[in-house]
User: Fold these one by one.
Assistant:
Number 1:
Amino acid sequence: MSLELCRMSLQQTRDLLELTDTTLRSLCCRRFTNEELYVEAIRRVLGGKGRRGPHSIFLVIDGEPGSLSRGRVFHLRPGEMVEASEYVVIDPGSVYAIPFIKDAVLVSNWDEKTESMDKYQASFHPQIKEFVGVPITNFIACRISGEYRGAIFAFNYAREATEYDAGVLVILAVVIGSLVTLSNEVRETERAFVYTIEALARACEAAEESTGEHIVRVNRYAGALAANMGLSTDFVETISYSAQMHDVGKIKVPNEILLKPGQLTPEEERLIKLHPVFGERILGDSPRLRIAREIAIAHHENWDGSGYPYGLNGDRIPLAGRIVKVADVYDALRSRRSYKAPMGHREALEVFRSGDARIDPKRHFDPEILKTFFEIEHMYEAIYESVTGATTHDWLF
């Protein structure tokens, strides 16, 4: 192998290892999709101008034995931008699927065969040829193994396709297969994590004989507010399942206090005002539960510092807590209580504008969040109407 090829091999290996390392470090943050993994891995192999890599790559995604396979063609553009075609659907029983079904790795150059260039072109799917855009003179095909099977075709190397090029493509296939399998396993773990959060939230609601719609609505209200405030996708996603943990601390408050139909005694009121502290302790120190913990401790704090448990004010109140406060109060106003009838949407809006005996909007809510609330109040009405029959159980704002 020439020195030039050795250098290229080393650089491509480094690029793919860097991608693997970056992906592993970001897995818990869920800041990627499978297609983003494909594109970035292909970008590393296609490289830039002057490199030996192929002109185009056809990546078959989620191909399963006996089923239709879907793939896209990726190719290099000026500025090293990888662009992709529309999806190409291939029947595994067609001639176009034979190369990657019969061989784990296949290297083919048209001039090594006795057939003509035109006959060589007939081997390739018409849509693939259209997206490649130029006659195909060589290709390498290799399988992608793992839970989600597939294949990679690399077309039109600048010189003839070689076993060295095949080795690079095999590395790419292994990287894609392993990262995609791992990322899907992480997503399964993530779903289990969210399910556990939901189960804990519903356990707290069960103590107060709620049907659970309250926590569903508060999640959706909070997510809508965060999204329309222009906050990051990660934050919106996290608050959309963490908001339901706002009252997790009530699991440590005796049921006779939570369910008491009459006025609370001073001691009972003191105890129930501790539920944010209980919630913070229950959620512990896990980084994964940071937003849920901030919501639990801060959703009863007021913008002017008159709330509880710590009397925080302004920006000292965690943002997630400020958002969930608005969501929780709205749902409480709309819900039936032992001491009041439920309000309609317009009545609740009037409380958010002018206040009532317990709520002073200017003193209690972050003004920017309140502004966003009024901009999307129709969404709140729709969310409430879509999940009916529940009551909330925040006794104190």
Number 2:
Amino acid sequence: MKIGIDRISFYTSNYFVDLQTLADARSVDVNKYYTGIGQEKMGIPPPDEDIVTMGASAAFRLQQDGELDDVELLLFATESGIDQSKAAGVYVHGLLEMNNRCRTVELKQACYSGTAALQLAIGFVARNPGKKALVIAGDVARYELGSPGEATQGCGAVAMLVSADPRLVEINPECGYYTEDVMDFWRPNYRSEALVDGKYSTMVYIHTLLESWKQYAGLTGLSLTDFDHFCYHIPFTKMAEKAHEKLCRKLKVELGKDQLHSLLEESLRYSRITGNCYSASMYVALASLLDTAAEDLTGKRIGFYSYGSGCVGEFFSGTVQPGYREVLYGNDHKKLLENRTELTYQQYEDIFNYGVPADGGEHVFPQYKTGPFRFSGISQHKREYETVV
């Protein structure tokens, strides 16, 4: 029985900062961003947007198409949790008016948790072939102003419907995965910004890739040349390129610039203009690849490398299914990305410095451009959401 991703929908904030604006404010050459890390823009959520609204907005297209009727498992993967107890997915479940017969859980392991959710969803469908699972991965990447990680900030969410006989991508069962207790990136409860040891994190990312690939290759007997495209976790697009080059060198596979471009370029397009989406980033890459590849991807094998700092990594693969283009949301994604509003530097800094009130009092938030849902305020320590469509 084939099991995998049946539909995929992507959402990001309606606001962005061009990294030229950030470069001017920081008095640096913009090519440090455009070329050095391969990023052009970063998505910025307004005060009335959070992981709940982004996750629900990503899944809203599925609801409109009647795709959620058979969903009995909702897994929300994030490292930007908004409550120490209540899962973000429960809020989403309510906003989408989903069936009450549904297990709903929030998962956390840095940027890897989206893949953990996908694999758990596959296990659920294997046991319940007539049912479906909804996997949502969503995050807000946030670093201190003026820090080395600032230009990699971003936000976004991906909603994936997981089912038997998937219409998009069959996920193959063989996986290589690796865990090691390290401190390359972490977000303590008492901080809203992440802490990262950039050079160390890059080293661990690549080491975990090599270990995961070694297991995967041992299980499958496949080589890198058996893959048509790759989707990597993308903290910034140059990291994906660097990782694949390192993997090829380690395995003594010759790789020219044109080959690297053909293997990765389409998967990097969305992330280049949205920034890091943490747990969603590898699946943003998948949506980008499926939406923008000029060639017919039917039957093509995709290699996936998911990495979460701390750390857990996994390498696995998927095969694109016949007729996949008929169930893509590519036009919706294109419209979303083209109609965003650019922020000035001062607007960006004002939003960055805005803090969600923590006194539990009565607060109503001003309305910005959002998707179908917004974070409208706080009352008696309770977050309140509303539908705006």
Number 3:
Amino acid sequence: MGSMITSDGDRLQSVERAMSVLLAFDAQRPSATMAELAEATKLARPTVRRILLTLHGLGYVENSGSHWRLTPRVLSIGQHYSASNSIIEVAQPHLQRLAERTGESASLAALDGTDAVYIGRVSIRRIMTINVSIGTRVPAHATSMGRVLLAWAAPELIAQVIDETGLPAHTRWTVTDASIFRGALRTVKDQGWSLVSEELEAGLISVAAPVRDQNGTVIAALASSTSTGRSSGEKLVADTVPLLVATAEKISDDLGHHVPAASRSLRANAHEGFF
């Protein structure tokens, strides 16, 4: 995801407040009163009221008595994203083939702030306790997809992730030391893929590889996920990584990025120091 440095004077506070109200609706709060939304967003009730009435007029929220909820129209925002990003349409058949060949779920993610966001997925088995669907956000530092996206990111963005998140532990295996984390990213960039085992959730293990646009910029990460009960790091490196890297290269090809055949997939054989 691209970023732009802006000053506070360039930002519309009304838009920020409206977005905070929209984002206050989630799985734990599918409907809410005006008071609950004011508490969740830290906005004054009159402000929340005006935002809700505006969103209601646009068709994005509805109310029943004192409770408000999102309407299906909010899904159109995601549809507009999909329609304007060819990578999703290009990648979908590759995701399907990867899932069929590995027998495991295949995903595509992009970086948004300090999170990796699922923008494509073919699910074979349910292996995570969180409900993974398009738009699901996961911490970049503790996932193979996130580490691929950060490995080729600007140093300033890596520093932002470290400073803003503090690299919190999600399991006892999560890398939380900044120096070790930076070393892990260097390893990912050197070998061309990432493996993360049980750092986001116990029993979850995944590998990811970069997807590039026509300019060679890493714009997404392709991942294959499984459980430690069905596989191991060594098995994934030997069996899945070569297929994963080759698939990521095919998606990149379809997006206009071409590399010499002699250099293809050579890094997939680098088994040392994987993360």
Number 4:
Amino acid sequence: MTPPNPQAAAGAHRWRAALFMLAAVGMFALMDAGMKLLTAHYPPMQISAIRGGASLPFVLVWVLSTVGARSLFRVRWRLHLLRAVLGIMMMAPFVYALRTLPLSTAYTIFFIAPLLITALSVPILGERVGPRRWTAIVVGFLGVLVVLRPTGEGVASLAGLAVLLAAFGYAVSAITVRVLARTDSSQAIVVWLLASMALGAGLLALPQWVPIRAEDLWLIAGIGVAGALGQYTITEAFRRGEASLIAPLEYSALLWGVLLDFSLWNVLPDGMTWVGAAIIVLSGLYLLRRERIHLEAEHP
């Protein structure tokens, strides 16, 4: 009988984690494309509420079949309330930007989020960031300027700035997850974010609420399914693999953005957007590499 090979098993585990991560990115890209299609008929705050409400039933089925309902109520409510505000602050501006920006351009600007997370971890979490990582952060911001081109030739418009606001909200929200994860389950974190987004954004959207058209129900259902599957697969990816190995796969969203932009709206990124994307992605990958080296030094 052949003895088990630990290295082969670990390699297969990493491959499964990578496949889950790629699937998650694809699901979220399809969800974003669905929300972009809805921007032609509904205001951004209403679409944010629809996104939360459409995925919530599917996520609840996943939660009840895995950890049960009891884990949803042993949580730190104040931090969840903060995440509710941050979730709306992230989703509504992003949806607003999708009304005019191609998915690929919005994703390129949003890629600044990992750099923001590292930068904000210093004042919020008290973490130490060395000069090499600060350099990567600054270079990443320069890449965003290349995409925005604030001289007036680029997308330095309200839409571009809205994506930056969404990325900032996402970064702060991600830092709160680091704190919440010490006491709350992953399922509880996801459920209360979706529920608070559906309720909070729904209340804010009431003054301008547009009746939902029957022909859009299939699209809303698709957004719900894609969002729920994305949440499940990204949870599985981080459960099965090291964050430093699978996080770079988030950049595959740019390929999805280009494919969906061309397929649905017949548009492609211009040359400067590609240049800016390359700068931001390379900065992010270098930052992830430095963080992995830093962690290995702390925990040899």
